[in-house]
Amino acid sequence: MQPLLQGRFGRPYLYLDRCETTQRMLDAAQPEGAVALCDEQTAGRGRLGRSWEAPAGTAILVSTVLRPPPERKAAELTLVGGLAAAIAVERATGLAAQLKWPNDVMLDRRKVAGGLAERKDGAVVLGIGINVNQRPAELPTGTKAPAGSLRSVTGREHDRAALLVDLLLELERRYDAWRDGGLDAVYDDLGARDFLRGRRVTVDGVEGTAQRITRDGRLLVETAAEPLLVESGEVDYRG
Ligand code: BTN
Fold it and tell me: Which atom of ligand 1 lies nearest, measured to the CA of 50?
């Protein structure tokens, strides 16, 4: 896929038809904004040791090198990446997307994208996968949140190259804002897309109601006992 990249992100732009995972095409020796993309991954990785699968040529599978300053919490980059992906998905579909803390992009209550931030020798490699043109039968089954693609939700095919260009521009914009101003700088747009807010959730076996993503990137859950501030991990939800 040869997009017409416009911003600082995408220099250099490494492309392979097929790779194990775009996360391993990049390392700390690359400059910030280096991008790796594959049409197909043979060992795509998700969060919490899961796999990430998509038939060749149907998805956006992209990773970027970032060098956040020491005062920023690198873990917040999954939120920043998720926000950028949600906004790019909204522009492509004309529909509202949400972010399920900490990294799932939801469209019509289906997970259509996810982000993965991994540290590498002082840099962070942020990977984003967006399900774009998979047909319903091509989507993974048995996932915690039901999987969707832009196509399965809108009923039409989407231009992956155009979406990639928009995603990288949005990521650059949101990353720069976060680097300079922390999560506060993107908080309003994040909070407006908080999928879990008000939902019944379970965290490590404890039930409660999700209140909001906090200004320091945690998830606040009200429980019968005491409020929980969730730092990382998995949140199951009902409905
Ligand atoms: C998740 O929701 O669990 C995160 C999924 C991240 C998938 C992307 S696809 C591009 C990059 N390469 C990978 O192997 N994983 C990320």
Answer: 3
